[in-house]
């Protein structure tokens, strides 16, 4: 993943922990806001709701980020110190239909009509409560078919998998999985009841470009069981039949 240095408008590679990798699979939102405290507050509220949020305080930085990474929604201030929000909205609309929520102190009807005609999906006038903004974000994403609050699939004994946001919970507590652990769980759960060999799992779940040993699948499964099973030595979700492979034995409720 890339981290963007907003102050000097550059980007650099950064190594993240496992939890950040999982977050990167969620809905990605870019906040374009020159007031850092406002941007940080919005980012915090969005992340509490399970979204992955980044922010830029310059329009030029936002344009560079948008050229490098795909986002599911943009929260856009109009009064930026370099490029206006209106211009950014026009540039985005030339190549993308990503939802845009304008958040600005401009309260005139002309400004609102102009920006909505340019392609914004919603218009909020500052100050606005973070809770209302989060609610607007969810509403816009729902209209775009990108978000559902009821997308989690519940299984026996407290396990739930939200395939839309790629989050896994046990007894309502979110579990941090590595990318390969999540891929294996997703593949097995979506093909519940069928046994798969290590080779099947590498090809169908992890990907043909996986360069690890096939025995590494056993390690991923072992770690996955430690996280989702009540008793990893007597698993209820991922079971083994020796000489055949692994299957997902959980039942939907």
UniProtKB/TrEMBL annotation:
Record flagged with keyword DNA-binding? yes
Kindly give the PROSITE patterns that the UniProt entry links to this protein. Answer: OMPR_PHOB, RESPONSE_REGULATORY
The organism is: Mucispirillum schaedleri ASF457
Q: Which domain of life is it from?
A: Bacteria
Entry keyword Transcription: yes
Q: Name one GO cellular component term.
A: cytosol
**Which Gene Ontology molecular-function terms are recorded?**
phosphorelay response regulator activity; transcription cis-regulatory region binding
- Keywords of the record: DNA-binding, Phosphoprotein, Transcription, Transcription regulation, Two-component regulatory system
**Residues annotated as signal peptide:** none
Q: What is this protein called?
A: Sensory transduction protein regX3
Its GO biological process annotations read: regulation of DNA-templated transcription
**InterPro entries, per database record:** CheY-like_superfamily, OmpR/PhoB-type_DNA-bd, Sig_transdc_resp-reg_C-effctor, Sig_transdc_resp-reg_receiver, WalR-like, WH-like_DNA-bd_sf
- Tell me which SUPFAM superfamilies the record gives: C-terminal effector domain of the bipartite response regulators, CheY-like
């Amino acid at each position: 993943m890339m981290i963007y240095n907003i102050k000097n408008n550059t980007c650099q590679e950064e190594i993240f922990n496992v939890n950040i990798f999982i977050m990167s699979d969620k809905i990605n939102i870019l906040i374009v806001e020159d007031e850092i405290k406002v941007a940080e507050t919005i980012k915090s509220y969005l992340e509490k709701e399970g979204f992955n949020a980044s922010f830029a305080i310059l329009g030029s930085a936002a344009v560079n980020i948008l050229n490098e990474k795909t986002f599911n929604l943009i929260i856009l201030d109009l009064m930026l110190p370099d490029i206006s929000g209106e211009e950014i909205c026009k540039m985005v609309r030339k190549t993308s239909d990503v939802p845009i929520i304008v958040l600005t102190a401009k309260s005139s009807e002309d400004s609102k009509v102009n920006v909505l005609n340019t392609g914004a999906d919603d218009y909020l006038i500052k100050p606005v409560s973070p809770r209302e903004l989060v609610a607007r974000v969810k509403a816009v994403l729902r209209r775009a078919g990108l978000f559902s609050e009821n997308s989690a699939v519940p299984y026996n004994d407290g396990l739930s998998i939200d395939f839309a946001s790629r989050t896994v919970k046990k007894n309502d507590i979110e579990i941090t999985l590595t990318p390969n652990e999540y891929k294996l769980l997703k593949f097995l759960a979506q093909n519940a009841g069928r046994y798969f060999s290590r080779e099947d799992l590498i090809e169908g779940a992890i990907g043909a470009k996986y360069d690890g040993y096939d025995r590494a699948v056993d390690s991923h499964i072992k770690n996955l069981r430690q996280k989702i099973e009540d008793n990893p030595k007597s698993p209820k979700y991922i079971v083994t039949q020796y000489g055949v492979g692994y299957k997902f034995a959980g039942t939907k409720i």
